[in-house]
Amino acid sequence: MEQLYTTKSLAALLQVSPSTIRREITEGRISWFKVRGQIRFKDSDIQKYLNQGQWKRRKLGNAEVVYMSTGPKSAFRGN
Known about the structure:
Elements: E1 4-5, H1 7-14, H2 18-26, E2 33-35, E3 38-42, H3 43-50, E4 55-60, E5 63-68
Antiparallel strand pairs: 1-3, 2-3, 4-5
């Protein structure tokens, strides 16, 4: 059976806030479904989402690091 994630658990996995996950849902970037009124994400859909290009993967020793690419603009404001 495929692993399922809640919004909170997916946010923790990707090391982003739950509001970032909700924004990705609103903008139609990540597939989801509901179980008894609760949003869930399938592992296979998360893999597709990660491979869309906004997220980058890098090997760090034996671990794989997944992070969000900020693109050409800085993620920091005020400079």
